[in-house]
Write a structure and sequence with these properties.
By secondary structure, the chain is α/β, with parallel strands linked by helices. 42% of the residues lie in helices and 15% in strands.
C-alpha cells in the first residue's frame, strides 16, 4: 500500500478496526477513510454504492461485523446472519464495481467444524458440522470467504481473507450478556472485586480450550498480509497456543486482583470443546505475535477501567 493510497477501514470504532487504524497510522498512512454506522449503514446497498462512487478507496479492510459471544449468537440468530451477509455483500461487491486495488475480508475461527481436528488447518473448512450456537455467524463468514474467492476467479479481483482466532484488547465489548468470554470475565471479576463478593460463577465447566490474540498483534498481521499476501487461500491468524477457560479465569482474576473462589455452572453451554488455529502458513512468512496473554489482559483491564469510569 502506497503511503498516499486511500484506505477504507470499515468498523473503525470496533476493537479490530480501531487496531487497524492505529497500525496504519504507526506506519505513516494518513489517508484513511472511516465512517460510523450512523454516517453509513453498511447493510444498505444504495448507501454503500454511493460511498464507493464518491470516495473511491484504493484499499478496503472489511472489519465491520455484528459480533457477540455464545449468548448473543444463539439468541439473535437472524440478526447475526442477515446483518453480516448484507455488510459483506455490499462491501465486497462495491469494491469490485469500483475497481478497488485490494480488499481484505476478516472472518473468525468459528467457521471451522465443531469437531475438526486440532489445530485447525485452513483446509478443514466445510469438512463437518458447525457449532450450533454460532452457526448463523459462521455461515455468514464462510460466505464472505467464498465471495472473495469467487470474485477473484471470475473478475480477477485481488480480494484476500484472514481468519483471526479469539481476540481481545483495546475497545473490546464488555457488555454483561453480549460480550465474548475474556472481556465478560474481566467485567465479572472486577465487579466481584469492588462489591467484595466471595465467588464468581462462570458458564460451563471450565474445560474448553481457547486461543487468544491481542488485537494490536492482529492488526500488525493484517497490514503485513495486505502488503505481502496475494493468494486465493485464506490465512489463519492466531497466537500459536491455547489455554482452558479455567486457566483463563485464574489469569484474569490474578490481573484484576480478585482472590475469591470460582464456581463453574455446568448447566450452561461450553461451546466448542477446543479452537486452536494452525497459523503455520502465516508464521512461515516470518510474522509472529508479540504480546503475551497476561500482559495483554493487563492492558485490556486498564482499558476497561477507563471506560467504566466514564459510564
Amino acid at each position: 500500500m502506497e503511503k498516499e493510497a486511500k484506505i477504507y477501514v470499515s468498523g473503525h470504532r470496533g476493537m479490530v478496526g480501531s487496531a487497524i487504524v492505529r497500525e496504519l497510522n504507526r506506519l505513516g498512512h494518513t489517508n484513511i477513510l472511516t465512517r460510523t454506522s450512523s454516517e453509513l449503514d453498511l447493510r444498505n446497498q444504495d448507501d454503500v454504492t454511493s460511498f464507493y462512487k464518491k470516495e473511491k478507496p484504493d484499499y478496503v479492510f472489511v472489519a465491520a461485523a455484528k459480533v457477540g459471544g455464545i449468548h448473543a449468537n444463539n439468541v439473535y440468530r437472524a440478526d447475526f446472519l442477515y446483518d453480516n451477509l448484507m455488510i459483506q455483500n455490499n462491501l465486497i461487491h462495491g469494491a469490485y464495481e469500483n475497481k478497488v486495488k485490494k480488499l481484505m475480508f476478516l472472518g473468525s475461527s468459528c467457521i471451522y467444524p465443531k469437531l475438526a481436528p486440532q489445530p485447525l488447518k485452513e483446509e478443514y473448512l466445510l469438512s463437518g458440522y458447525l457449532e450450533s450456537t454460532n452457526e448463523p455467524y459462521a455461515i455468514a463468514k464462510i460466505t464472505g470467504i467464498k465471495m472473495c474467492e469467487a470474485y477473484r476467479d471470475q473478475y480477477g479481483c485481488n480480494f484476500i481473507s484472514a481468519m483471526p482466532t479469539n481476540l481481545y484488547g483495546l475497545n473490546d465489548n464488555y457488555h454483561p450478556e453480549n460480550s465474548h468470554v475474556l472481556p465478560a470475565l474481566i467485567r465479572k471479576f472486577h465487579e466481584a472485586k469492588i462489591t467484595n463478593a466471595n465467588q464468581v460463577t462462570i458458564w460451563g465447566d471450565g474445560s474448553p480450550m481457547r486461543e487468544f490474540l491481542f488485537a494490536d498483534d492482529l492488526a500488525n498481521a493484517l497490514v503485513y498480509l495486505m502488503l505481502n499476501y496475494n493468494e486465493k487461500e485464506f490465512v489463519n491468524v492466531g497466537y500459536g497456543s491455547d489455554i482452558t477457560i479455567k486457566e483463563l479465569a485464574e489469569t484474569i482474576a490474578r490481573v484484576v486482583g480478585f482472590d475469591g473462589s470460582h464456581v463453574y455452572d455446568s448447566t450452561k453451554p461450553n461451546g466448542t470443546p477446543r479452537k486452536l488455529m494452525d497459523s503455520s502458513r502465516l508464521f512461515a512468512t516470518g510474522w509472529k505475535p508479540s504480546v503475551d496473554l497476561e500482559k495483554g489482559i493487563a492492558i485490556a483491564y486498564q482499558d476497561f477501567l477507563s471506560k467504566t469510569s466514564q459510564e
